[in-house]
Write a structure and sequence with these properties.
single chain, about 100 residues, alpha+beta, Aspartate Aminotransferase, domain 1, six-stranded antiparallel sheet, 6 strands, about 30% helix
Length: about 100
């Protein structure tokens, strides 16, 4: 996971910069990001080979993140993937939908 630390730092900064009024928490080595009026919007988990970004309302996004069903997610394996335009688009969309309460 040390090789993924720049990916985690980039995604954390991007989420915090993109969503005004953001609240966050860490539980069981998972980071949660949310808004009081919408609940928890995003979960970020670092594994050995990827960082998973889970969007709790991701099934409502256009385009949807590629993995999962109701909650959709993406596996990010490099800083290049973390900088992809669709990642920012999904983070922006997360702030517009109710998440997990």
């Amino acid at each position: 996971m040390p090789g993924l630390q720049p990916v985690v730092a980039h995604l954390d900064g991007l989420i915090r910069k993109t969503i005004p009024g953001l609240q966050y928490a860490v539980k069981w080595k998972k980071a949660y990001y949310g808004l009081p009026r919408h609940g928890w919007l995003i979960e970020m988990v670092a594994y050995d080979v990827s960082v998973n970004l889970v969007f709790f309302a991701g099934a409502k996004f256009e385009p949807e993140p590629p993995l999962g069903e109701g909650s959709r997610y993406v596996k990010i394996r490099s800083l290049e993937e973390a900088r992809a335009p669709e990642v920012r688009t999904w983070i922006e969309q997360a702030a517009r939908h109710a998440g997990w309460r």
